[in-house]
Specification:
The complex is a heterodimer of chains A (191) and B (386).
Chain A (H helix, E strand, L loop, with lengths): L1 H53 L6 H16 L5 H15 L3 H9 L3 H33 L2 H5 L20 H4 L16
Helix pairs in contact in A: 1-2, 1-5, 2-3, 4-5
Chain B lengths: L1 E5 L9 H15 L3 E6 L11 E3 L4 E5 L2 E5 L3 H14 L3 E5 L6 H8 E2 L2 E5 L7 H14 L4 E4 L2 H11 L4 E2 L6 H5 L11 E5 L9 H14 L4 E5 L4 H5 L10 E5 L3 H10 L2 E4 L9 H8 L4 E4 L2 H6 L7 E3 L4 H12 L2 H14 L5 H16 L6 E2 L5 H9 L1
Parallel strand pairs in B: 1-2, 1-6, 2-3, 6-8, 8-9, 9-10, 11-12, 11-14, 12-13, 14-15, 15-16
Antiparallel strand pairs in B: 4-5, 7-17
Helix pairs in contact in B: 2-3, 3-4, 7-12
The chains are: A mainly alpha (191), B alpha/beta (386).
Chain lengths: 191, 386
């Protein structure tokens, strides 16, 4: 009789442990969803700020076209082409906003400083949001590779999480523009 | 925004992390945010109104030194109550990988959690063994901040994943505006740090000092910091002892004035530094910096352009560089000018807005912080049972 009780206790403990692990995994998936939503919001914000700058008439037509195209493509890209489109937007921003003179010219027109500050804020937050997202993905993947999760299928039907891989390096002059706080100090202390 | 900050170390003991937490909390409060800091503190310590005591910290040997930490069921209950009563939008934990109050908070709370990793200990077997224990708590952190690129690298190496780099903040204006003191001026080299902690490298500076005097006989050395001055002076030939002045512990105001007065600030540290806030303070005050070429220092000095570097522990190199600098006012002026521009990125206005950007990134669309009911498998069992 005692053996039966012992077996029941052990099974109960295993069950509780597995259900706790499933809860852990559930929370990690929720963290990925939140981080992905935050990343999407910042990417969208960046593309919108770029579009606004491109159509404001402060750039020469060639620069404006490059920015407009890249931002438009980034906003419209289907899921599987998103990383490439966003990376291309980063490259375009670096190419167009490559010089301090360009930034000074933009800042002198009415509404220019606000538009640049908005873009600078978005450009600074994209790498942050991406790192937080990929960090969550890494944690979930580590747990999902564990035996207990695979054997008992604790992850259910949730897709295997994928990192968001893109070139998010900011144009240097924009990083130096600060966080929209107007100090002109360098906000970035990046790798 | 309602922000809860957890300081792992005793509020009544001065230290880098404590100062950082204090300055961050005060900066955020000035911007109009509601901030509550949870920190261990002895009963009867006078605390600022925004600090909540988590009870006394116990001295525990940890990682090669004695750490004063809070843990156990009583601390956990206090943390839980603080989290519950605070109704925070975001929690900001400091040093959560140490067995501390921050780790406890991570354990009992859920919601948007930001964590700053200050130290960069070399990878140890204990860390590797502790990893599975820490993991369920640490994986609740939505955003990690490392205080330097060096700290980020070690963090990634230890725990995997990634972090953003936001340096420690300094009130640049406070140091830049301090009044120099005449008696500390005129061919002086400054050193600030614990005298008896070999890691801070005072011995290297004292070994180099006779050589500096040979080339620049008018030089004086000003040493500020806790420790036995007699013992330290014993490292010098008796004839040179009057060239060194031990100032003991000095106030923040005097520290700023000292840094404003000296011709060189020397940082001969031997290791164990993940950031080097004192170098930023020295640069803010306009003191040309001469530092050992530790990874963290080289980073803070912008690869050696905002201050000079010498090979760590090499007294001869330190002496040569110091004598050179003392005899070259133009070079010192150039370093000052370069450093004044470089330190702006460490000013609280910049660092604070970066930290707030992190808070915004993790709180956008997320629920608020709340106590966690699923802290361990066994808690789950009890909560079901009763």
């Amino acid at each position: 009789m005692t053996t039966v009780i012992w077996i029941a206790v052990v099974l109960l403990l295993i069950g509780v442990y597995l259900s706790w692990t499933a809860g852990r995994l559930d929370r990690l998936h929720a963290r990925i969803d939140a981080a992905r939503a935050a990343l999407d919001a910042q990417l969208l914000r960046r593309a919108s700020a770029t579009l606004e700058l491109a159509t404001s008439g402060v750039f020469d037509p060639a620069s404006a076209m490059v920015l407009y195209q890249a931002a438009h493509a980034a906003r419209r890209a289907p899921e599987d082409e998103r990383e490439v489109a966003e990376s291309e937007l980063s490259q375009s921003l670096r190419a167009v906003l490559g010089s301090r003179e360009q930034l000074t010219a933009v800042s002198e027109v009415p509404g220019g400083p606000e538009a640049v500050a908005e873009l600078a804020a978005a450009v600074r937050r994209v790498p942050m949001a991406r790192r937080f997202h990929n960090d969550a993905v890494r944690a979930a993947r580590a747990l999902r590779r564990h035996r207990k999760v695979r054997w008992f299928r604790l992850a259910g039907h949730a897709p295997f999480p994928m990192a968001f891989d893109m070139d998010d390096e900011a144009p240097e002059v924009l990083a130096a523009y600060g966080n929209g706080n107007g100090t002109g100090a360098t906000a970035a202390f990046r790798s | 925004m309602r922000i809860g900050i957890v300081c792992p170390y005793s509020w009544d003991v001065p230290g880098g992390v404590q100062f950082h937490v204090r300055d961050l909390a005060e900066h955020l409060r000035r911007l109009g945010h509601t901030v509550s800091v949870l920190a261990p503190a002895d009963d009867g310590t006078a605390l600022p109104p925004y600090v909540v005591s988590a009870g006394r910290a116990m001295a525990v040997p940890y990682n090669g030194s004695v750490a004063r930490l809070s843990f156990g069921p009583l601390s956990a209950a206090r943390v839980r109550r603080w989290v519950h009563d605070g109704d925070f939008d975001v929690l900001h934990l400091h040093e959560p990988a140490a067995p501390s109050l921050a780790l406890l908070t991570c354990w009992v709370a859920r919601g948007p959690i930001v964590a700053t990793f200050h130290t960069s200990n070399p990878r140890s077997r204990a860390m590797v063994a502790a990893y599975p224990i820490l993991q369920p708590a640490l994986e609740k952190i939505s955003a990690r901040i490392a205080v330097s690129e060096y700290a980020r690298r070690t963090l990634v190496e230890h725990l995997g994943g990634d972090a953003v780099t936001i340096p420690n903040g300094v009130d640049v204006g406070f140091f830049a505006g301090a009044e120099p003191k005449a008696e500390w001026q005129g061919s002086t080299i400054g050193f600030i740090g614990r005298i008896d902690e070999s890691r801070k490298g005072l011995a290297v500076l004292l070994r180099a000092f006779p050589q500096i005097l040979e080339r620049r006989p008018e030089t004086r050395l000003l040493v500020a910091g806790r420790g036995d001055a007699e013992e330290a002076a014993g490292l010098l030939p008796a004839a040179l002892r009057d060239r060194v002045e031990f100032l003991g512990m000095i106030s923040d105001e005097d520290k700023a004035r000292l840094l404003r007065s000296v011709d060189i600030y020397a940082a001969p540290n031997l290791g164990g530094e993940s950031f080097g806030i004192i170098l930023v303070e020295a640069m803010s005050a306009g003191a040309p910096v001469l530092a050992s070429d530790l990874d963290a220092f080289s980073q803070v000095l912008d690869g050696g352009t905002a201050g000079e570097l010498f090979p760590t522990g090499d007294a001869d190199a330190l002496a040569a560089a110091a004598a050179e600098l003392l005899g070259d006012p133009a070079r010192r002026a150039a370093l000052r000018e370069r450093a004044a521009r470089h330190v702006l990125r460490f000013d609280w206005s910049t660092v604070g807005s970066d930290v707030l950007a992190v808070y915004e990134t993790v709180t956008e669309g997320a629920s608020t912080v709340a106590p966690d009911d699923r802290i361990s498998p066994w808690a789950r069992l009890w909560s079901r049972g009763g």
